[in-house]
Amino acid sequence: MKQNFPNNIELDSDIYISDYTNFTGNAPVKGVDITNELNDIFNLWPPLHISNPNKVPILVANMERNPAVNKRKDGTLCKQCECLCISTQCAEDDVPWFALVELKCCQDVDRNIRSNIENALFKLKKHHLHLRDEKSIITKGMFHYYWIISIPTSDRPPFMRFLFSQDSQLTLGEEFDGAQIIGDNDILVVDGSEIKGLHKETLL
After folding, report:
1. Residues 77, 63 contacting (CB under 8 angstroms)
2. Averaged pLDDT for residues 169-177
3. I want to staple 199 with a disulfide (CB 3.0 to 4.6 A). Which of 78, 87, 138, 158 is the partner?
């Protein structure tokens, strides 16, 4: 898997993922930043927090720094999400987890929370299909698949309740290799085969 995303980092700690594209202050980078260290800037522009208490080894790839994998055969670029995270160790009788991460970071995000979620889902669908059908990097049953939608500037998680009924979420998962959608700003790494949002989804 590493060869498909050559610009990656491996961490067995908590992970903080930020997108400073729309941040107007002094940011560490212009775009997506991935770190395992707390930063004072988080008080102004909060990140997605992936809590990893059991120190599961995780491969993290910033898709902005892996442009080659986003190219289609015709040379055009796929709609990609911010990054992906993959557990690299799990029980012998199970498979690892694979998470596509999409962040929506902007001021007054709650005014358009539904449209932000719809836009995030569009990109996650396109990226999953691209990695599966165009690049043949992932296949059904190879991983436990998760799509993470994080809106760090919103204090209203879980987010999928704004868009989905339980049946529609299950149907979407069946179409995309069993992918589970998590709409949260705080993710818990349970082990090498499972992650979950810390705010319980109450679907309509």
Report:
1. no
2. 72
3. 158
Residue 24's identity, in one-letter code, is T
Q: How far is CA 135 from the centre of its chain?
A: 19
Residues belonging to the chain: 204
- Residue 204 in any domain: the answer is no
Tell whether 202 is covered by a domain. no
Confidence of residue 164 (pLDDT cuts 50, 70, 90): low
**Residue 59: is its pLDDT beyond 70?**
yes
Domain count, the chain: 1
- Would you say the pTM of this structure is higher than 0.85? yes
Across the chain, what does the average pLDDT equal?
A: 86
Amino acid at 49: H
Instruction: Dig out the tokens for 112 from the structure.
Output: 């358009």
Q: Is residue 140 part of a domain?
A: yes
The answer to whether the beta carbons of residues 17 and 33 sit under 8 Å apart is: yes
Full domain range(s) for residue 143: 2-197
- The answer to whether residue 128 sits within a structural domain is yes
Given a contact cutoff of 8 angstroms between Cβ atoms, the answer to whether 150 and 125 are in contact is no
